[in-house]
Amino acid sequence: QAQLVQSGGGSVQAGGSLRLSCEAREYYKNGRWMAWFRQVSGKEREGVAGFVIGYHGVYFADFVKGRFSVSQDNAQNMVYLQMDGLSPEDTAMYYCAADVDNPKEWELPQSWRKWGQGTQVTVSS
C-alpha cells in the first residue's frame, strides 16, 4: 500500500528552525498535489502549504507569513517543509498529505485521502 513516510521535527526554541521531510513514494508524480497540515490537540487539522509536484509555486496559509518554504527532491521522491522563525504558536503535529479530491479546497483536511504518520514540532518560548 502506498505510504507517506515523514521524518524530522522535534523541539526548538522560539526563533529557531526545523525541517520536516516526507517521502512521497508513489505519490511523487508531476502535476500531483500535495500539502502540509498541522494539528494542535483538540483542534481541527489546518492547512499549512499546498503545492504541485514539479511546479515551484506554493500556496501558504496566512499564518505562515513568509516564514516557511517548501522544496522538492525529484531523485529521492521527497518533499520538505522548512520552517524558520518558529514561535510557540507553531507547536503542533505536522502531517504531509497526498491524493486530493479538489485542489481548490487544498486547505480542507477532508479533501485529502492519504496522510503521513505525523511528526511533532514543539517550540518553547
SSE pattern, N- to C-terminal: EEEEEEEEEEE
Query: Helix/strand/pairing class, anyone?
Result: mainly beta
- Which residue ranges are poorly predicted, with pLDDT under 50 across at least 5 consecutive positions? none
* Apparent shape: globular
Counting DSSP E segments of at least 2 residues, the number of strands comes to 11
Radius of gyration: 13 Å
State the share of residues found in helices, binned by percent.
under 10%
How large is the share of residues in beta strands? over 45%
Counting DSSP H or I runs of 4 or more residues, the number of helices is 0
Mean pLDDT: 96
Distance between the termini: 40 Å
- By oligomeric state, this entry counts as single chain
**Main sheet characteristics:** 7 strands, mixed
What does this structure look like?
The protein has strands at residues 5-8, 10-13, 18-23, 33-39, 46-52, 58-60, 68-73, 78-83, 92-100, 112-115, 119-124. It has no helices and 11 strands. It has 125 residues and is mostly beta strands. The mean pLDDT is 96. The strands form 2 sheets. Strands 2, 4, 5, 6, 9, 10 and 11 form a 7-stranded mixed β-sheet that branches. A 4-stranded antiparallel β-sheet has the order 1-3-8-7, with no helix packed on it. The chain starts with a strand and ends with a strand.
Give a brief description.
With 125 residues, the chain is an all-beta fold. The protein is built from no helices and 11 strands.
Features:
125 residues, mainly beta, seven-stranded mixed beta sheet, four-stranded antiparallel beta sheet, 0% helix
